[in-house]
Design brief:
Elements lengths: L4 E5 L3 H14 L4 E5 L2 H10 L4 E4 L2 E2 L2 E2 H11 L5 E5 L3 H10 L4 E4 L4 H12 L7 H13 L11 H11 L4 H8 L3 H15 L4 H10 L4
Parallel strand pairs: 1-2, 1-3, 3-6, 6-7
Antiparallel strand pairs: 4-5
Helix pairs in contact: 1-5, 2-3, 4-6, 7-9, 7-10, 8-9
Length: 211
Amino acid sequence: MTGLNIILADDHAVVRQGVKQILAGAFPSARFGEAATARDVLEMVHDGHWDVVVLDLTMPGNNGLDVLKQIKHDRPELPVLILTMYPEDQFAMRAIRAGAAGYLNKEGAPEELVLALRKILSGGNYISAAVADELIVHTRQDDSRPMHELLSDREFQVLCMIGSGKTVKDISTELSLSAATVSTYRARILQKMRLKTNADLMQYAMQKGLV
């Protein structure tokens, strides 16, 4: 494939450089645009012609799922490959429902990244074995879904952050939200999950392997 235009959206320059080296080896004529924040990637999508976006789920200014949804709203034909540190059982299904063409963990092999991108660029979707397993699990669960599946994407993200021991202040800073907004999300999470305290949320998150 020649003449490809690829956005690499990740808040870590080292990660962007590593991904660029891998993809440049497979697509020598590719042109890369780099984005470190949610605002950067959305502006690039709006202002230029791109063939694919490789997007992290942790982006300053907004979470990656919201960025994904905005990209699919503004450019529904533009495929997005999620490349993230989060394991498949946390965000893969949410990302696919939001319109992602593929989902990869950063711990995967470089060859899998190239394979995924080739398939996506040819008009397909890339589902790893781990994501396929999650699809099967979700299909079989029906109405017996775990309580965290009832949460919105943002609520689920806040749950995971609380579960990992982060404070309201930590979460508000990382997500660029006010402390009051984070507290509102926390209250909704507790209500939906019929729990009472942060300790309950932390215990739940650990039991379900969310942290």
